[in-house]
Amino acid sequence: MKREDYIFVWTNVPTTLYMNKDVKAYNNTQSAADKAICNLLATEIDSVLKDAENKIWHAHPVWFLDGNPIVGYSKLKDSVRLLFWSGQSFEEPGLNPEGTFKAAEARYTSVKEVNKKDLKRWLVRSKKIQWDYKNLVKRKGVLLKLKGLAA
């Protein structure tokens, strides 16, 4: 993405960042409570996954490393869902299995429920533990663990 695709945002944490303008627009469509959760998640994700590509994918904010989806969030009826595509392999408390592959989620109804320490730990693990979702269709539903992306 080009620099003009990002806007300057002052957050509730003592830092500033440039947030993807499409992600900011997504966050701005949420209720005040959900917007606070989304802004916090985006800020924390950006602070750890500095080299990740960030865009709206299937109508939700998602961060990618080398084209592979790593983490994203979406508004559900009763909460904001944080989803790690390879999260089941993290073997971390606080993440619950989601779907038939390796994804895991945490759900939030208040910004106070977001444990930043846990979130940062999960984000660090997300860089080291990845399944190849990028090529899932090409491999006809066979999910392989990626090699060589761990830092």
Features of this protein?
151 residues; alpha+beta; Aspartate Aminotransferase, domain 1; 6-stranded antiparallel sheet
Helix content: 25-40%
Q: Look up the CATH topology.
A: Aspartate Aminotransferase, domain 1
- List low-pLDDT spans: 147-151
Return the CATH architecture: Alpha-Beta Complex
Secondary structure layout:
Blueprint: E1 6-10, E2 16-20, H1 21-28, H2 32-48, E3 53-57, E4 60-65, E5 68-75, E6 80-84, E7 96-97, E8 104-108, H3 116-128
Antiparallel strand pairs: 1-2, 3-4, 4-5, 5-6, 6-8, 7-8
Helix pairs in contact: 1-2
What would your notes on this structure say?
The chain has helices at residues 21-28, 32-48, 116-128; strands at 6-10, 16-20, 53-57, 60-65, 68-75, 80-84, 96-97, 104-108. It has a single domain (3-128), classed as Aspartate Aminotransferase, domain 1 (Alpha-Beta Complex), CATH 3.90.1150.200. It is globular and about 40 Å long. It has 151 residues and is an alpha+beta fold. Helix 1 (21-28) packs antiparallel against helix 2. Strands 3-4-5-6-8-7 form a six-stranded antiparallel sheet, with helices on one face. The chain has a two-stranded antiparallel sheet with strand order 1-2.
